[in-house]
């Protein structure tokens, strides 16, 4: 790592290209969920986003391996990653806030409680409960049943907690230049994360086909899939990042003193794990 001058990266095409493909991805996903169409823009956005990630990662790898980054660049990367994770915290805080607002304020108001309890006049027979199995409007059916938190969700919680532990062991091995343990623990983390996604897919199929728990199953179904679905997307992104870290480890890129890319991926993965614990408690258990 050079310390004699501050490296200014060359002009990059990736930011604007990423915005375009993320736009395709968002529009396509929205169309798929609302009308069943939109598969083509979704696939364009998905494949394009993967291409952007590959190209952008490669540029950073080449700059890093060329010794172009100095201590100031390292601080910039750390600050940037910290702000990125903060933005992700705010992203999930909005959805958790929606959940809490519904449960603490909106439902009691519809049941006649509080200063806005007059709204109970709309549906005088409505009884506020959570999970909301019977919606105020009879035209919108609630779920037939909810997912038992002590089955697949508990297994997934244990898997993600274990993956944070294995990733910490991998980071420890990297600091001590133990490449064999580093690779083994990192592969274990990837396996645990992959199994998590498989189990979540099984849970979704079970909920959708057997429990009547769908996006159309009232506010509970909508918030359930909104929170757990976005978390699943973040797990997928985290696995892609960790897979890239594994490739770099196999190429011998990191040293005990210079491995912020690995450290940043660990920050992200631990954040994803903490979010899941919140989801397990407030979506599945309470």
Automatic annotation (TrEMBL):
Topology class, membrane: Multi-pass membrane protein
EC number of this enzyme: 7.1.1.9
Compartment(s): Cell membrane; Membrane
TM region positions: 12-33, 39-61, 82-102, 150-170, 182-202, 222-247, 267-285
Main subcellular localisation: membrane
One annotated Gene Ontology cellular component of this protein: plasma membrane
Family: Belongs to the cytochrome c oxidase subunit 3 family.
This protein's name: cytochrome-c oxidase
